[in-house]
Amino acid sequence: MKTGVYGGTFNPIHRGHIHLLEEFTKRLSLDRVLLIPTRVPPHKAAPDLASGQDRLQMCRLAVGDRPHLQISDIEMRREGKSFTAETLEELHELFPQDEFYLLMGEDMFLTVEHWYRPETIFSLAAVCATPRSLHGMGKLQMKKDEYQIRYGARCFLEDIPYLPVSSTQVREWVALGKDITSLVPEAVAGYIQERGIYRKGRETMDFSQLEAEVKTHLTERRFYHSQCVAEEAVRLAERYGANVEKARLAGILHDIMKDTPPEEQLKILTDSGIILSDTQQRNRKLWHALSGAAYIRNKLGITDCEIVSAVECHTSGKGNMTLLDKVLFVADYISADRDYPGVEEMRRLAESSLEEAMVEGIRFTVDELMGQDLPVAAESIDAYNDAIFTLQKEKEQQP
Length: 399
Description:
The protein is α/β, with parallel strands linked by helices. The protein has two domains: 194 residues, HUPs (Rossmann fold, 3-Layer(aba) Sandwich), CATH 3.40.50; 191 residues, Orthogonal Bundle (Hypothetical protein af1432), CATH 1.10.3210. Helix content is 54%, strand content 8%. It has 19 helices and six strands. The protein has a six-stranded parallel beta sheet, sandwiched between helices. Strand 5, helix 6 and strand 6 form a beta-alpha-beta unit. It starts with a strand and ends with a helix. 42% of the residues are buried.
């Protein structure tokens, strides 16, 4: 079977993507194309990246009833950043009889040699590209010749008419309240509207309004804790260079679901299409962070991905944490209202290194979980390992 492989952020998928895939399918006589949304894109920063579940669902809606276009979550299930070489290796194991064609645009084709393990990519798939710029075909042909000599690559170039649509344009139109049905399939436009994805959210509201909203969900004690965390998050953000306003908002919002009954938290997660891992199912203490992130995005209209991410991982941590993620994670441990044994040591560590404070915090949490015979989340292990690796690199670079 001739199988096309088309990876991307799809943030969101748009009519240009579908047009490109249909043309590649016809011109290369492909039996099918696998659309593979990346979990964490390795080639670009993604500050306004929609959730993996949302991007997968938008791809499904965009494909509709085209049986030759199939959605794969192979990279969504992989921890950390997504690398094409690893994806192709996994696809070869899953479909050993298939002949793979890696599909891409001009910019990607011109930089494949700089990707992770390019020799593996060229050995496992034919690499197929189409130009985007006026003189793009000439550039592609030169690179094709180079790849054939250097890697023994099989490359196919197709001059597919360019449809001038971009995911950035879609997000910008959504933020401006413009109709996007000319840019994305109608089903995708409806999903974006219904879920409030990419909408200019309530993070632009006056802080006091959101604070008042949070207060309605929490006990007096929990609300005071949230105020303290917001203050500490601001202090850490100023110290380490994170966005101060985002830190303030993430701090006041982080425990918004903490006092909500578990069954209601679970309903929020289910309604949001979030599937809990076995560990998350068994440890209800993780639910409030996950349901809180879903709630502020879907109900309060907080669409800033950094804020949502920080709320989502403030209890367990996760791999590849952003600076804002780390600020909130540590602020929750050392806010002014905390008085548990060891908090002063963690406050001391946070003055010099977020990573050191994170390591101490994760150790504290793991000890607590083990004392209660509760499982440790894989996300916590990933966060711990990342922090340890960062500290080791810092020590190696010291004179």
